[in-house]
Design a protein that fits this description.
alpha/beta, 218 residues, two-stranded antiparallel ribbon
Length: 218
């Protein structure tokens, strides 16, 4: 299993960093090959250039060595994990820019015409999104419609060929107790480990990958 783990949070020592570290350690402990990226710490440049705005023609080779590396890597992954906070119902800018600059035509998907249906090119069949939030679940879903769920499970990952999208939200973080955070980290480790579980040889689950659930977090 080759898994890419991507962190988007600018403050060292944040709970997002703790989640990221726990996931990376768990996956490596399970024998997975992990490509771990702290996008802010690495200084990933999120600004889309004019030459990168095409949606049909395959993207031109990247002149930026870091961008070229990310594009090469993402095409080789078996699974992906994204760790980030909920900011205004969106991922942080660095991760939004990563999506726009890395998941480009010819790398992550193929589109015959602007109005056509995309064909996902990524071999990663599953992804895990781990979010932190200070908005109660009832308000997030009832008032805002849980935009992050739509972004990842409808707008981005299925478009590039990821059929199994899992998401866990840890909330509310700012007023959480140490014991609650410890339970959330255990939940993150279990969810990450479940990415490595092989499907039933009988295919009775319709190709979906089992998810380990625990009582920690919400």
């Amino acid at each position: 299993m080759r898994t890419g783990v991507y962190l988007a949070h600018p403050r060292p020592g944040s709970f997002n960093h703790a989640v990221f570290d726990a996931v990376v350690k768990e996956l490596r402990g399970q024998g997975a090959e992990v490509l771990a990226h702290d996008l802010y710490a690495e200084g990933f440049a999120p600004l889309l250039t004019a030459e990168e705005t095409g949606t049909v023609e395959s993207a031109a080779p990247a002149h930026d060595a870091q961008l070229a590396l990310h594009r090469r890597e993402v095409a080789t992954l078996d699974a992906m994990v994204f760790v980030h906070p909920n900011w205004w119902g969106m991922p942080p800018a660095v991760l939004t820019g990563w999506v726009q600059r890395v998941l480009v035509p010819g790398v992550a998907y193929k589109l015959g015409t602007a109005e056509g249906e995309p064909a996902g090119l990524l071999k990663a069949g599953r992804a895990l999104v781990l979010n932190t939030s200070d908005t109660p679940a009832e308000r997030e879903e009832g008032e805002f419609g849980d935009p992050l769920q739509r972004i990842w499970s409808a707008c981005v990952l299925p478009y590039v060929g990821v059929s199994d999208v899992r998401r866990v939200v840890f909330r509310t973080v700012t007023d959480s107790a140490e014991e609650e955070r410890a339970a959330w980290l255990e939940r993150a480790r279990l969810e990450a480990a479940s990415l490595l579980v092989q499907p039933s040889p009988l295919g009775a689950d319709g190709g979906r990958w089992p998810v380990v659930r625990t009582g920690g977090g919400s």
